[in-house]
Amino acid sequence: YQRRVHGESSRNWMWDKGVLNGAPQKSDDIVEFHVGDMITNLMKTDLTPGGQEVLFYTTVMGGIGCFVPLQSRDDADFFQLLEMHLRQESPPLCGRDHLAFRSSYTPCKDVIDGDFCEQYMTLSYSKQREIAEELDRQPEDVCRRLEDMRNKIL
Fold first, then answer.
1. How far is Cα 10 from Cα 7, in angstroms, rounded to an integer?
2. Which pLDDT tens digit goes with each residue over 62-86?
3. pTM surpassing 0.90?
């Protein structure tokens, strides 16, 4: 028995079409990222009045985080390159590869780890300079971009 439900727009619901065994809630995987814990709350909000909307989450163990959409391709390319160079320059403390951790269940897709990029500030100045030169920038410029991204959220 299949119930035919028509909404206000007179469309049939997805479960009437027999897609995914009739599950009423379906979503597309746009990004994939392992946060390290089970997410208990997820909401779309802006943390400052007139600020950029983010996906804010909390986890079972008390972790708080957010997913921030990057506004330009230049930002995405810059932070992706920074993350790549940081993976090479700063080895993990416990010996586990950063990308392997973030891809624990499914491969990490279309997400840049902002917490990991923030570790740039903790590197020695010589390492900061090496990474900045590979990005064709000065270390102060890289720090400024990281701070600007953080200030967009807070």
1. 5
2. 999 888 888 889 999 999 999 889 8
3. no
